[in-house]
Write a structure and sequence with these properties.
By secondary structure, the protein is mainly alpha-helical. It is built from twelve helices and two strands; from the N terminus they run H-H-H-H-E-E-H-H-H-H-H-H-H-H. The protein has a two-stranded antiparallel sheet.
């Protein structure tokens, strides 16, 4: 939090001096044109802050990094590199579109496949690997075991869905930052709870214990992400002095999917990150309805937050109300997670 709270200020000055500003689509909302030139690629700040924070914690406590945490950080940083290339091309060529869709998808796929393959390796002394061959909700679903190739495809789809979901939500000042911060805060609590009830410790309570590898270290990663976003939000809140860009949104979506895979909460993340799912669904529905009706629109504009802007809502009102929706999703998700443990 300290690194982003203080470091973002210097990043803004450095980016502004070099003219690394945001390009705005000509067919977008006219009210957003005033944002043209605002420094972008701010995601690099919280990526660096998160990684530094994690390894500082390891150094301070004199404990080695774990495979699960390193893999989530790899996915987080790797997706950030893809986003950085996208942002850099936008700035270099002075256009609102960066990487071609095929190149962007290829980059995301490469990082996701490497993550998925490695996550199925590195068994600990109990035989637990970072990722599981089962599809999970709050735990592994015993009858949904997949062969390795399908596990990799499933993880790839989860990463693609979450990274693009956060990317679509990153359209208003502070919206994606605040919403992501809530989800990673929830994962901090989930990982601490899983550690306290881990089957690998004496505190594990029979059938209620969690078969998750390295939950405490995953809590450290989630806490670092939460703190880094908290500090970044100071500068990203309306009126934003800096944007996270695709560097930030793709990396956050990747980290979110990575946490879901490692904590065996792959379907629960759809509830915890409900706002991202809702925004993504609005785009899918808009495109589908447009094609089916030969030109009619379901919303005035997609993604969903722009629809409410076109209805006359102030940008700040849209952001705060969407934060409330995201907060409710997190509370309900945590409630479902705890209720499953209570009921056994």
């Amino acid at each position: 939090m300290v690194l982003t709270l203080l470091g973002t200020r210097y990043a803004i000055k450095w980016l502004a001096r070099r003219g690394y500003g945001q390009e705005i689509r000509d067919d977008g909302l006219q009210s957003h044109m005033i944002k043209r030139g605002t420094p972008t690629m701010g995601g690099t700040v919280f990526i660096v802050a998160t990684i530094v924070g994690y390894f500082a914690a390891k150094l301070f406590t004199m404990t080695p990094p774990t495979a699960s945490a390193l893999l989530v950080l790899f996915l987080f940083a790797g997706m950030g590199v893809v986003g950085f290339l996208d942002d850099f091309i936008k700035i270099f060529r002075q256009r609102s579109l960066g990487l071609r869709s095929k190149a962007k998808l290829a980059g995301q796929t490469m990082v996701a496949v490497i993550f998925a393959v490695l996550a199925l390796q590195f068994p600990d002394d109990r035989g637990q690997r970072p990722a599981s061959p089962f599809i999970s909700f709050i735990r592994d679903i015993g009858w949904l075991e997949l062969p390795s190739i399908l596990v990799i495809i499933w993880i790839l789809l989860l990463i693609a869905g979450m990274s693009n979901g956060v990317n679509l939500a990153d359209g208003l000042d502070g919206l994606a930052t605040g919403a992501s911060m809530m989800v990673f805060g929830a994962y901090t609590l989930i990982c601490i709870w899983q550690f306290n009830q881990s089957c690998a410790t004496e505190r594990g309570v029979g059938a209620k214990c969690y078969e998750v590898r390295d939950p405490r270290d995953l809590a450290v990663v989630a806490a670092c992400l939460t703190g880094a976003l908290f500090g970044f939000l100071w500068w990203n809140a309306s009126p934003a002095k800096i944007f996270m860009g695709d560097t930030g949104s793709l990396s956050l979506g990747g980290a979110l999917a990575g946490m879901a895979v490692m904590t065996r909460t792959e379907l629960l993340v759809l509830l915890l990150g409900g706002l991202f799912v809702l925004i993504t669904a609005s785009v899918i529905l808009q495109v589908g309805y447009f094609k089916l009706t030969h030109g009619k629109r379901l919303f005035r504009m997609a993604p969903l937050h722009h629809h409410f802007e076109m209805l006359g809502w102030e940008q700040v009102n849209v952001v705060i109300r969407f934060w409330i929706i995201q907060g409710l999703c997190v509370v309900i998700g945590l409630g479902v997670f705890y209720a499953e443990w209570v009921t056994g």
